[in-house]
Amino acid sequence: MDTRFDTLYDVAICGAGPVGMTAGLLLAARGLRVIVLERRSTTSDEPKAISIDDEALRTYQQAGVIDRILPIVVPGTGTRYYGLDDEPLFHGGAESAYRLGYPFKNPFAQPDLERVLAAALHTAHHVTVRFDTEVTSIVQDADAVAIEAGGRTVRARYLLGSDGGRSTVRNLLKIGMTGRSHPELWLVVDTLGDPHIERYGMHHADPSRPHVVVPGLDGRCRYEFRLFDGEGTATDSPPFELIERLVSRYRPITPAQVERAVNYRFHGLVADRWQLGRCFLLGDAAHMMPPFAGQGLNSGIRDAANLAWKLAGVLDGCLHESVLATYRSERGPHAAAVVRASERLGRVVMTTNPRVAARRDELVRAALATENGRRWFETMAYRPSYRFSDGLVLPGDDTGSAIGQPLAFDSATRTIRPLDEILGTGWALMGIDVHDAGDWSRARGIARGLHAVEAAVPTDRTAPRIDDVNVLLDVDGRLDDEMRTYTGRFVLVRPDRFVAAAWLPHEGDDVRAAVASWTGSSPSPSELSCLETKGVSYA
Predict the structure, then answer these.
(1) How many angstroms separate the CA atoms of 18 and 31, rounded?
(2) Alpha-carbon gap, residue 501 to 489, rounded angstroms
(3) Could you report how far apart the first and last alpha carbons of the chain are, in Å?
């Protein structure tokens, strides 16, 4: 472990919460020199976040720590919603179970996650972790950022501010936030020795006392109760008598079984800027949202997953520095949409108006009686889809979203492995039912600057032989189902497994021009013209 403060680090990270440590591990997995600065003396014991999605688990696979994460989660099945009469309305889960290679929505305890991530960082190569180190000043120039921290100066090529809702980095950069704080007061109680054994969260939309129950691992359980006038303020320490009264509908409880109890008011805020020069904001420093969609931490992990590989690509010379501006253009709209969706979900599900609640249940039950309505609710289609058309992507019907992670037979190693494990952590050039060596040669020229792994996927139950190209074969129907929409085309897949481009073998000029803009090479005038026609900007 690198312990020197006088090193010029590739990336300095302010904040050793889950998002900052996730970013550190993703960067370390790509060989970068990283320093993590945290003002606290150790990881947090406060169990704040309690749900981690399949997207986040896939990110930890890329970071090389998934085997450490899985033991601390409950393989979840989604969320069950209860109506005015406290009877189940519907159960929301994944549209396609295990599509990304992991369970969809998984309860966990944040202190467990932080301890696992910190232990992994302490053993990672080229990583320095400094607790008891408060950032007090940030000065940047064209080449680096100088950070005053703990009485020393740390220099890094880039700085990530992942230091929470009261972000020091955001405040030092004088970046504001837009949105609103919500006046409703909620009591959040984390308990031990709980009898709940469900593998899903429960939203009880009873207007007389809206509340949430999320069972965790080994008898942990999160309870969240809406409070009313006279039951406390945001600055109060909740009295045990109140906790006991509210939890008693589910279980008896003793003071020793209360792991944490706090009164909360929630926020719906998004930073006005996510990048200022060489400094970036991630997680709660960039966006804060109500918890009703369970997306606060997951949104921060998406930030880290989007930014880490871009920074690595810029620092190793593969990508032009201008691509870093796509962090905000890709992540910002989705984060803002999730904030709005979380606010809407809270208003509708957690209303305290009996007439609104009755009408809500009536409309939901009517929708559930139809095929489309049932699918919309049961696949949680009310959550904003994570897809973008702006950034490192050529707009198209089949681009800008993530591919799944089915199992595949790897012809190179003669093993059956998850797709991400085969493709690695970099770019991938995939040909779906493209067998001609000349077509592959031309596509290889397009993606050469990205050092992409190459893989052919036949969906026609054949095993073609293509010179110097690895062939991946379907083993359970899922690889073919995932890739069939691209049949006859090449697919350029980014390190975060989003599809950047898809094109027929006789096409490709627009892809070549876009890749040239991303890598900083010089496209020809005809390629520039093609980019303009496609609506892709050249940086």
Answers:
(1) 20
(2) 10
(3) 37
Structure tokens at 419: 């797709």
* CA-CA-CA-CA dihedral for 234, 236, 237, 240, to nearest 10: -100
Is the pTM value of this prediction over 0.70? yes
C-alpha closest to that of 456 among 444, 284, 448: 444
What pLDDT, on a 0 to 100 scale, did the predictor assign at position 529? 46
Looking at per-residue pLDDT, the higher value among 531 and 101 belongs to 101
Tens of pLDDT, residues 460-492: 999 999 989 999 999 999 999 999 999 999 999
Strand partners, 176: none
Q: Which two tokens stand for residue 392?
A: 């490192």
| Residue 310 and residue 323 in contact, taking contact as beta carbons nearer than 8 Å | yes
Cα–Cα distance, 260 to 45 (Å, whole number): 9
The Cβ of residue 376 has, within 10 Å, a number of other Cβ atoms equal to 16
Tokens 């994944």 correspond to what residue? Answer: 94
Q: Which residue has the higher pLDDT, 526 or 282?
A: 282
Segment 230-279, tens digit of pLDDT: 999 988 899 999 999 999 999 999 999 999 999 989 999 999 999 999 99
Distances (CA, A) of 62 to 27, 52, 196, 340, 420: 10, 16, 33, 29, 8
| Contacts of residue 454, Cβ cutoff 8 Å, sequence gap at least 6 | 428, 429, 430, 431, 440, 444, 468, 469, 470
Using an 8 Å Cβ cutoff, are 247 and 190 in contact?
A: no
